[in-house]
Batch of 4 targets.
Target 1
Amino acid sequence: MPPKAAQRLKGQALIAMQAFVDALALYGAVKHGDDFPRNRQCLSLEHWREACDSHHLSSGDGESSKRAAFHKAWNGLQERGFIRVINGFAWRCEE
């Protein structure tokens, strides 16, 4: 489901999406297979999580806090139709 034009990101969702864009520029690649889009670069969740950590997505310093903040952020972005995650890789739903 594509995002609605009126939706705006803020808070942790905005930080997570900026981290996604930055990591995609460095590590993005078109994945091959039926599960992935042919016209979009994909990003591993591992690279995205590292970028989120460097963008200070979590206010806590512990691994558990960072992991929870990342999981909450990407789930929220997926539910709102900004990104799609399959098999450990994410891509933007709309450019």
Note: The mean pLDDT is 90.
Target 2
Amino acid sequence: CFVTIKDITQDAHYCQFIEGDTPRDSCYFSIVIKTNNFELCEKITSPYFKNSCKSLKKATELSNQN
């Protein structure tokens, strides 16, 4: 239910209510991808998603420098 609300609103607030680390981290990461709100990377607990989030942040920063 919260995933659907998140998809409609793009509001990361709803991710915190999703049970399970991987689905919750996936929720945060999907919003990061759509909004470039890299502050959400700190809410991610999975090393895989956290590293991906940080890599995306670096790539975006490099892209914006050009």
Note: The CA atoms of residues 16 and 24 lie 7 Å apart.
Target 3
Amino acid sequence: EALEFDVAEPQGLRHLSFRVVGRELLDTPAGEFETIKVERIYRNGGRKTYMWAAPELDYFMIRMEHIENPLVRGKIELTSIDWLTDDVAAETAGEQTHARTP
């Protein structure tokens, strides 16, 4: 499945292409998640970027891996997650608003 997005960057809009690679069960420090794996499509064939998103968490990104070349690569991974209830989110927003009020 192909995905196309226009992404706002400081230089202006940039068109990005992705494809769904498949599904994977990921075991992370934050727990185990069933994910959808997506690959970014680059014009040149050297780079690769993969993202894993969990449908059970409204497609929140669980892991991202970028391979620039055989020597340069990076990876980020979810280590913990706290979901706020509506009551806690409203209370936190109120505290933040109050904190900014002189």
Note: The chain is about 15% helix and 55% strand.
Target 4
Amino acid sequence: MNTMICATCGCSLIRLGINNEQAVKFEYNQILYVFCCQGCLALFKQSPTALLKETMDIVVCPTCLAEKRNKIMLSVLINDQTLHFCRCPYCFDTFKENPQYYIDRLEGRTGFKGLFVDDEKACCH
């Protein structure tokens, strides 16, 4: 699943309402990384190896958009894609009601504005 995760804090950019065009980007070792804000990019530049190690196995539940380590998520193969769900039964049941919406949202194709859309103090504004 191709969802953007901040290489510094591990936040789902989709959960924050940040699309690909809005994401802060930086190339490191010939790989393009995304960040939720300039502050996270500045921290990344100070300690990229350590931060990448901390965030490399984070995945996002398509339903609640929770960011968790891959090993504690429920992995399900759906339409030749592996999706990672938090273990809450609500999330998987809700996903099954409208799977394409949740897949599209996770990939940033729905116009989802983010959980903090009304919080002017949030770093992602």
Note: The chain has a mean pLDDT of 89.
